[in-house]
Design a protein that fits this description.
By secondary structure, the chain is of the alpha/beta class. Helices cover 46% and strands 14% of the residues. β5, α5 and β6 form a beta-alpha-beta unit.
Length: 276
């Protein structure tokens, strides 16, 4: 686990409550770790009950005194999200930080993406943000009035600005989310709620590990294989990103360190972006 003391004090978020959707693995779990390390109480959810249970067990093993609340929840189920919001508030208090992190990519081209696939992808990308935001917004507005600062951070992809033809539906949906963040930021600003996002490039994940396991040349180790992948993808930093590196950007945007930032996106792509 990486220490955050180089840019945020250990108890800087003490007394505040953060909510992380998709918090049982990858970037979401790394974000939960950093939030706890910074003193926040954290509510997390995920669809996979077993994975969520394992994540919570690991967190409690390293931080037995952490204020932590976890529930299985599908963010596409509006009723389930409203229930999670009420349970979270009852357990930890009202949230002042919401991290919308749930979502995954779909590999398909325009030619082979059927109507149902388009509907599923747009539904996932938009309502994985809309449902949690609706459910927690009253808490965020109340905390914004108390603390002068509440925040929503949406984990998005570089595809929003740099679409790939083999991920046409995901790229289009990600671009829509980019616009949604800006719209919400403008609307919520008078209530003391900031809205920002991060644009993720290639980050180490279970997906890339599975591709590594299926590699043709079994003599290549992970470091060599992933370095070659980064070269092939023209990533100037020459490697894939780490979940913790994306989590640090989320922590910055969720915390008062970014109190004068709203409607913006941080690029977490190792220089892969072709846009200024």
């Amino acid at each position: 686990m990486n220490n955050t003391q180089h840019f945020i004090a250990k108890d800087a978020l003490a007394g505040r409550v953060a909510v992380v959707t998709g918090g049982s693995s990858g970037i979401g779990l790394a974000t939960v770790e950093l939030l706890l390390e910074s003193g926040a109480a954290v509510a997390l959810c995920g669809r996979d009950a077993q994975r969520l249970e394992q994540a919570v067990a690991g967190l409690r093993a390293t931080r037995p005194d952490a204020k932590l609340f976890a529930r299985t929840c599908d963010v596409l189920d509006a009723n389930a999200v409203r229930s999670f919001a009420a349970q979270s508030e009852a357990a930890l208090g009202p949230a002042s930080m919401l991290i919308n992190n749930a979502g995954q990519g779909r590999v398909s081209t325009f030619a082979n993406t059927e109507d149902q696939a388009w509907t599923e992808e747009l539904n996932l990308k938009f309502f994985s943000v809309i449902h949690p935001t609706r459910a927690f917004l009253p808490q965020l507005k109340a905390q914004g009035a108390v603390h002068g600062d509440a925040a929503i951070v949406c984990a998005n992809s570089l595809l929003a600005r740099q679409p790939e033809p083999h991920m046409v539906a995901t790229s289009a949906a990600r671009a829509g989310l980019l616009n949604l963040v800006r719209s919400m930021a403008t609307e919520f600003a008078p209530q003391g709620v900031r809205v920002n996002g991060i644009l993720i490039g290639l980050i180490e994940s279970g997906q890339w590990r599975r591709r590594f396991d299926a590699r043709e040349d079994k003599s290549l180790d992970w470091a060599t294989w992933s370095s070659q992948l980064a070269k092939d993808k023209h990533i100037p930093l020459g490697r894939l990103g780490l979940p913790m590196e994306a989590a640090r950007a989320i922590l910055f945007l969720a915390s008062p360190l970014s109190s004068y930032t709203t409607g913006s996106h941080l690029d977490i792509s190792g220089g892969h972006s072709r846009h200024a």
